[in-house]
Write a structure and sequence with these properties.
Blueprint (H helix, E strand, L loop, with lengths): L1 H5 L15 H11 L10 H6 L4 E4 L9 E6 L2 E6 L5 H18 L8 H16 L30 H7 L11
Parallel strand pairs: 1-3
Antiparallel strand pairs: 2-3
Amino acid sequence: AWLEARFLLPAPALPALEKHEPGTAAEIVRRRWGLGERPVANVVHLLEAPGGRVFSLADDCREVDAFSLIRDDRPFVFLNTDRSAERQRFDGAHELGHLLLHGGAPRVHGRDREAEAHRVAAAIEVGQVYVNSYGVAGGVELPFGGVRRSGYGRGKGLEALRSYSRVKNVCVAL
């Protein structure tokens, strides 16, 4: 309440994507938030734009990389500022993955949930990129798999069909 009384802050608007695969969830967020295909310039701004609050962890929590929670429909992310800027960036995107995929559920830890959050983080930060493989993380439902003009994966999904098509009206007198 103290922050809201002093600052005009965005209302919480984090989509609930619990039923989606991580790559699909990342694509939905990139599309809805207008992120395009380029790497995300500032993950903290990305977390704050939909009404999230980002804080640094206290000094006595230095063994923790980051964590997130939703309270009163408001997403909160806590980052360890002792980590490198690159690590904080990934940790923020990783916590966004948890908020998108696991936000409404009780916090359950496990390798599967961590792997899902990692996949969202990678796709949010830089888009979907394949190295020495093709189609590992996604299927036909993931449009435009690469970053910029990276090649493989760009022809997937309905978006690809739209990019190769032109809408045209044809009127025929019968």
